[in-house]
Amino acid sequence: MPKNASVMAREPAIRIYLWMVLAAHRPIIGLTVHRPRVKSRCLIGRFICPPIQAVVVSAAPSQLVFNSSEPSSVPVLRVSGLTHVYPGATEPALQAMDLTVANGEIFGLLGPNGAGKTTAISVMSTLLRPLGGQVQICGLDALRHPRRVRQHIGVVPQRIALFETLSATENLTYFGRLYGLRGDALKAAVRSGLQVAGLAERGDLALSTFSGGMKRRINLAAGILHHPRLLFLDEPTVGIDAQSRNRILENLIQLKEEGVTIIYTTHYMEEVQRICSRLAILDQGRIIALGDTGQLMRQHPDCADLGDLYLKLTGRQLRD
Amino acid sequence: MLKWVATIHKEWLLLIRDRTGLLLLFLMPAALVVVITLVQDNVLRQTGGLRIRGALVDADGGAAAQVLVHALEANETVTFRRVWDGRAVDTQKAADMVAQGELQFYAAIPAGLTAAVAERVRARMERLVAGESEAAAPGSDLPEVAVHFDPTVQSIYRTAVNGVLHQALAVMQAEYSMKYLGDSLERHLRERVAALAGGFAPQITEQLVPTLGGDIMQAPVVCISVQSTGSAKFERLPTAVQQNVPAWALFGMFFIVVPLSGSLIRERREGILARLLVMPVSRTALILGKLTAYAGVCMIQFLCIVLVGKWLLPLLGTDAFVIGGHAWEMLVVALCSALAATGYGILLGVVARTNEQAAVLGPVSIVIAAALGGIMVPVFAMPHAMQVISQASPLAWAHDAFMTLLVRDGGLSAVWGQLTLLLLFFGAALGVSLLVLSKRRW
Fold first, then answer.
1. What is the spatial order of strands in the sheet that B53-58 belongs to?
2. In this structure, are B60 and B135 located in the same domain?
3. What value, to the nearest 5°, has the Cα angle with vertex A43 and ends A40 and A47?
4. Do B275 and A122 touch (CB under 8 A)?
5. Do A160 and B442 touch (CB under 8 A)?
6. Which of A29, B103, B294, B413 could form a disulfide with B97 if both were Cys (CB 3.0 to 4.6 A apart)?
């Protein structure tokens, strides 16, 4: 995509169409559409849509966002020097954390309780403002433009953050609307979400009637309704049966194939080995190991598996 | 805008699904209004008397006692019963009935009252005619009519009973005074005439002083005229219905803080709010969506209670709630009150850490604000310090605005001060809530 582009069109209908298309995509593709200053003889053109010759579409290279299906060399997530200390705490929750995650990766974030995983996800997902450091998502500065970044990310929290008395369809519809989906696009997204969750036939039932596994699957579906570029998953398979867990992992692999980048926290090492392309082990707010599973295992030949490696790096003492 | 509407829709769905909660939201305030109005109906009724009843024990039976009994039985404020089951009530029977709660007091006219009154009044009139002062009277104990109250009777009722007794005693005293004044004057004039004639007084067979007394002394020479300070076309007393319908509707509306704060705390604790905050929607839109839905509930609540006052209460024997010509103004006051109530609910939901904290803090603070706001006791009846404190209660502002519209016949121009305070309270609560929300650790 060029840095600047001008389109010449004098027909009002074409101008209206182009203006609507560009304006509609502005929040998604991160473009700036300038209103023209050229006077039009057409009344509609003057007040409703500008002459298209004056529509200038510009985007700084750092703000460009690429089609999610195309591979890109620009990392989807870039974190540098991330530091955070909670008020009143003596130890920092995050200490100068650096991380880069490329497009289409499933990146595992491991660590014992209190290591800083949830804080890291909170900061990266714009929920929490860090004390220091930078977060770039899809090339956008997440700390300066949190609202714009939120359009590109999905978050699946550890808790089942859904409304129990609403049906699955109503839950997904509400979250879809908050992501800006409307009309047929919303209906399609909800239908697709129910299919992903394997609950297409039970969409009208209240969530309170669902099992833990069904709720977890809807919890995931609510986070991907808007086809995010980057998906944060905080222990999405806690406390569910093997079938539901398998379904969720299959869904995540499918999302990866569709080009979605995933940051995945879990305590289940076999899940990491199965789906993650790379991982970081976090302890006391610091990344103590980073790389792909094979690479890390080769660095520690005395470890039989990832579980052994994890315990070796983080220690065997309890973390209460 | 659409996200705000989506949030309103979601809140409505959640409210509709909670049928028990919804029933409580609408039924409880309506029940409160009906019960309180029926309980207080007679106290504030325009034409009603006090529902306080007592016995009258007449141990004297003389002329003075008869005058007293007649005066007490003729009053319209307090009921005195002298006969029970066809027999005159004696002291023991009266005391038993008060102890059992059938009567609230009894008054006992002592034996010898007539003789004591006659003697005392005659002596007083003699001194009056002779030009002596009352200070020259020989000291002696006054005959007394004893009143025995049930200990639970409040002082306002005691004052009413004492007032009626004083009035009756004054009637009796005036009648006896006139009678003995006439006698004393007659005797004094005859003696004076004899003294002036030097012992050769003519025999006067006719009475020199006409008979004094009768009801001429009881006829008023000044009357009391009660005027409303509102407009002349709109004279209305604060009946139980006019007082209670807006008052308890407000109370019910402010109780919205319980479900509203509960909903917010639940969303916080279940991680829903954290999830919403990482979506492309502003905190303000989320909070305003919730607030709009609950303010809508408040308005429906208010309309239901107005309908109860207008249609249901008259069926139960009370006056109907009269809106007058201020329907729109009432809606504006109700809307400002609803915003203040929901703003407080949001603040409570943001500040309280647990549902338990909000479930205690919310209702208790509303009851305190209602008590201060004149919902239970009129503000003018409070001690001065409490009257000053009551000016800080949002319920006082809202209640005062309703009373201005409904009883004082004021318009919006007369209540703009209260409306401004309610809106400022709403704005402050919302501002603090958003600030706390932005500082909260997730």
1. B79-81, B53-58, B105-109, B146-149
2. yes
3. 85
4. no
5. no
6. B103
**Residues in CB range of B259: below 8 A, 6 or more apart:** B15, B18, B21, B25, B294, B345
Same domain? For B89 and B198 the reply is: yes
Which chain B residues are within 8 Å of A125, Cβ to Cβ? 278
> What is the rounded distance in angstroms from the CA atom of residue B191 to the CA atom of residue B181?
15
| Residues A256, A301 share a domain | yes
Q: Is A72 part of a structural domain of the chain?
A: no
Give pLDDT, residue B196.
Answer: 82
Pair A251, A210 in one domain = yes
The span from the CA of B147 to the CA of B429, in Å, is 54
Q: Is residue A65 part of a domain?
A: no
Q: Which helix (H) or strand (E) holds A50?
A: none
Contacts of B268 in chain A (CB under 8 A): none
With CA atoms as reference, the chain B residue closest to A148 would be B280
3-state secondary structure of A316: coil
Rounded Cα–Cα distance for residues B314 and B304 (Å)? 15
* pTM greater than 0.90: no
Contact check, Cβ <8 Å, B277/A127: yes
DSSP per-residue letters across B25-51: HHHHHHHHHHHHHHHHHHHH-SS----
Yes or no: say if B400 and B414 are a contact pair by the CB < 8 Å rule. Answer: no
Q: How far apart are CA B33 and CA B16, in angstroms?
A: 23
Asked if residue A238 belongs to a domain, the reply is: yes
- On chain A, the residues whose CB falls within 8 A of the CB of B10 are 163, 166, 170, 174
Tell me whether B14 touches chain A (CB under 8 Å).
yes
Q: Are residues A13 and A131 in the same domain?
A: no
pLDDT at A68: 37
A187 with A240, same domain?
Answer: yes
Structural domain total, chain B: 2
Q: How far apart are CA A165 and CA A207, in angstroms?
A: 6
- Asked whether residue A68 is assigned to any structural domain, the reply reads no
**Mutate which of B14, B278, B287 to disrupt the A interface (most A C-beta within 10 Å)?**
B278
Same domain? B175 vs B74: yes
CA atoms within 13 A on the CB side of B178: 14
Q: Which of B184, B217, B250 is the last residue of a domain?
A: B217
Domain encompassing residue B379? 2-46+241-439
Task: State how far the alpha carbon of A12 is from the alpha carbons of A47, A90, A293, B43, in Å.
Answer: 11, 64, 57, 75
- The percent of residues above 90 in pLDDT, for chain A, comes to 28
Which tokens hold the place of A47?
A: 């007040």
Interface contact B281-A178, CB threshold 8 A: yes
Domain span including residue A283: 77-314
Question: Are A102 and A46 contained in the same domain?
Answer: no
**Residue for token pair 């992992």:** A249
Ranges of residues in chain A with a pLDDT under 70 are 1-73, 316, 318-320
The tens digit of pLDDT for each residue in A5-61 reads 444 444 445 455 555 544 444 444 434 344 434 344 444 444 444 443 333 333 333
Same domain, B59 and B40: no
Weakly modelled stretches of chain B, pLDDT under 70: 42-51, 134-139, 199-202, 213-216, 226-238, 441-442
Q: What are the tokens at B144?
A: 């007394």
Amino acid at position B302, single letter:
F
Exposure on the CB side of residue B125, measured as CA atoms within 13 A: 23
Across-strand partners of A78? Answer: A100, A136
Of B3, B14, B442, the CB nearest to A127: B442
